[in-house]
Design goal:
This protein is flat. With about 220 residues, the chain is mainly alpha-helical. It has eight helices and two strands. This is LysM peptidoglycan-binding domain-containing protein.
């Protein structure tokens, strides 16, 4: 990586290196290389200052020009999609405060002000219409079916990462997006199921996957 493309970042409560790597489009390994002072990557503390890339790394290409994912965001959402939203709001002259990947009251106020300026429903929720007004070409959900494995507390792996990303995009934080189905992920699943009128068992089956917007393939 070239010189002059780094910046300092202040760690916020509950954040992990994985969260920060996702936010800045890099990897945990890259962050550890940039921050040799981190003795234990599992032990970050709020207020800790670390070095991060000031721009996306070349190894992580951007979304294709023909369309971008447009997740539904609301107060409480976190992650790279919120960073993108905050950057777009700022570029349109509506300040969300710090561009920190956290959809808080100031980001919500900026969204409402932007929606009002475009004649949209001023609900503070960022859906396809708000993304489009911000200049994003939203891609339609893939019609191709996906595998929808049954997940529960104790499950691990890429499917859990996908689940955690979907929960976050719907405004139900599972904590760290780390591929581990722990108590916080289970609590987020139960809260999501409750919001959709599903059985609140914390187990992710076809009905929960479908409610999350996944087109599940049949066996």
């Amino acid at each position: 990586m070239e010189r002059g493309v780094f910046m300092n970042y202040v760690v916020k409560p509950g954040e992990t290196l994985f969260d920060i790597a996702c936010m800045f489009n890099t990897t945990v390994e890259e962050l550890l290389m940039l921050n040799p002072q981190i003795a234990d990557p599992m032990c970050l503390f709020p207020g800790q200052v670390i070095c991060v890339p000031a721009q996306p790394c070349p190894m992580h290409p951007q979304m294709p020009a023909q369309g971008e994912a447009c997740p539904v965001l609301r107060q409480g959402s976190q992650g790279p999609s919120v960073v993108h939203l905050q950057q777009l709001l700022t570029s349109h002259g509506f300040s969300p405060g710090a561009i920190d990947g956290i959809f808080g009251p100031r980001t919500e106020a900026a969204v409402i002000a932007f929606q009002g300026s475009r004649g949209l429903v001023q609900d503070g929720i960022v859906g396809v219409k708000t993304w489009t007004a911000l200049g994003v070409n939203c891609m339609t959900p893939s019609p191709h079916p996906h595998s929808c494995p049954t997940l529960r507390q104790g499950s691990t792996g890429p499917s859990v990462v996908h689940l955690q990303q979907l929960l976050t995009s719907h405004g139900f934080s599972p904590g760290a997006i780390d591929g581990i189905f722990g108590p916080r992920t289970e609590a987020a699943v139960v809260a999501f199921q409750r919001s959709k009128g599903l059985v609140q068992d914390g187990i992710v089956g076809i009905r929960t996957w479908t409610a999350l917007g996944v087109n599940c393939m049949t066996p």
